[in-house]
Task: inverse folding
């Protein structure tokens, strides 16, 4: 079989980035990526903070706009870069305020290592803080790490709200973290396989049917109005099942995407530690997800602010915090003690976080989708709407919490019944809001293609193991 020539490769890549997955396909895109770290390499003795962002930020934005015009739309990476450039160049001053946290691991004396344990599990660690380097060589590493550290979990920002809540350094060994990552990948793979097997059979995921339409696994008579099943359950059960399928697929996909690249990286760190040192190795990173118990304790706040991954938190919420700081709005303490300034600040940060999150995820839609009856902009608005309505959900949750505290003072969410009630509220809200993302993904045919090459579920039921044949 002859190898494809250059023109065929270019044609395929252009087709991929315009009709399948939006991505970089022009020089302006890469110039904008290059300018952010380049600008931060210039020390403040040469360009002050104000001069730096006044000079580089307009150029980066001009390149981004030109890139989006050439692409025919936006993508996730470039929108993130636009917001990240605003944060690092204008809203924050990393060269003055940021400190990079180094976790130094030390091997204890052999006499303190138990013969029954892996010596790697006995490694101890200490942390050091590194300000903006004065010389170029360490500055390149410092700036490069900063630009890639969008969670800022290994950085102090001279901001008490951030610095006081930094996660502890991950002291897991390579072996322990690799086993954990492998379990996450296998679990996600099986969940994705099982849910895809159902979605492949449910016409709701392939045709523009209402989410309350009858389930394919149940006979039509089951949903007949004269049947003993109450009408409310006829509406709730299909919505609950389909939302659960959708949420499970998203949850399964994210850990797979996060953990698949870490296994070869850990191996590279083990074999060539000078090429990939420990502080760059994934086994030293904080966990991507927080404790799920935060959802039942804090509702949507716990779902989005503690349990779900925080990859874009600094990117999307910093503009709201900076605006609140500029307006002089104080935090105001706990929710029950907040004054009007505290609530105004909370509203700005919440609107910023979910407003920009919606715009970022609009970049999932290609500019020229194939074989769809829905335009690219309409699809993007459906995606964005899911994030934007979360602001309403947060508002309802706050009003509910305030009303509960007024009528039932002293009864918090530590009680099991209360935590179950909070969890039911979160599930109910997701059943209302999460289906907003179905129309664009359905139009793009996401559920027509099996997400993995080999299906355990299909193989077990006798429909064949290989899906990508």
Result:
């Amino acid at each position: 079989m002859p190898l494809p020539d250059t023109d065929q490769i270019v044609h395929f890549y252009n087709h991929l980035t315009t009709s399948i997955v939006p991505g970089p396909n022009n020089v302006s895109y890469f110039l904008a990526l290059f300018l952010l770290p380049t600008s931060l390499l210039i020390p403040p003795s040469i360009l002050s903070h104000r001069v730096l962002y006044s000079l580089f930020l307009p150029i980066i934005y001009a390149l981004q706009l030109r890139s989006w015009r050439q692409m025919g739309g936006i993508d996730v990476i470039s929108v993130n870069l636009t917001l990240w450039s605003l944060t690092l160049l204008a809203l924050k001053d990393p060269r003055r305020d940021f400190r990079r946290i180094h976790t130094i691991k030390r091997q204890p004396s052999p006499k303190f290592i138990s013969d029954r344990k892996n010596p790697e599990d006995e490694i101890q660690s200490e942390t050091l803080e590194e300000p903006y380097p004065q010389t170029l060589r360490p500055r390149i590493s410092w700036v490069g790490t900063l630009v890639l550290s969008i969670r800022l979990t290994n950085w102090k920002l001279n901001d008490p709200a951030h610095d006081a809540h930094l996660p502890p350094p991950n002291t897991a060994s390579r072996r322990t973290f690799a086993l954990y990552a492998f379990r996450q990948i296998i679990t996600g793979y099986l969940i994705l396989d099982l849910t895809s097997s159902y979605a492949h059979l449910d016409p709701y995921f392939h045709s523009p049917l209402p989410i309350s339409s009858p389930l394919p696994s149940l006979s039509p008579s089951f949903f007949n109005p004269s049947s003993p099943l109450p009408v409310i359950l006829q509406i709730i059960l299909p919505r609950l099942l389909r939302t659960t399928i959708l949420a499970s697929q998203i949850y399964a996909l994210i850990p797979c995407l996060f953990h698949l690249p870490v296994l070869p990286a850990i191996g590279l760190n083990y074999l060539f530690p000078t090429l990939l040192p420990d502080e760059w190795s994934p086994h030293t990173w904080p966990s991507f997800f927080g404790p799920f118990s935060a959802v039942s304790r804090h509702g949507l706040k716990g779902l989005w602010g503690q349990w779900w991954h925080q990859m874009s938190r600094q990117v999307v919420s910093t503009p709201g915090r900076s605006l609140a700081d500029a307006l002089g709005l104080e935090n105001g303490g706990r929710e029950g003690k907040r004054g009007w300034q505290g609530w105004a600040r909370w509203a700005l940060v919440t609107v910023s976080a979910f407003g920009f999150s919606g715009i970022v995820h609009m970049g999932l839609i290609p500019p020229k989708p194939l074989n769809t009856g829905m335009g690219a902009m309409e699809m993007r608005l459906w995606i964005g709407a899911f994030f934007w309505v979360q602001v309403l959900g947060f508002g309802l949750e706050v009003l509910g919490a305030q009303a509960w505290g007024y009528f039932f003072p002293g009864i918090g969410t530590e009680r099991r019944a209360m935590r179950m009630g909070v969890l039911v509220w979160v599930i109910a809200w997701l059943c209302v809001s999460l289906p907003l993302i179905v129309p664009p993904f359905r139009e793009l045919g996401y559920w027509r293609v099996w997400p993995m090459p080999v299906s355990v579920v299909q193989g077990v039921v006798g429909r064949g193991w290989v899906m990508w044949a």
Notes: The first strand starts at residue 99 and ends at 106. The two ends are 18 Å apart (CA to CA).
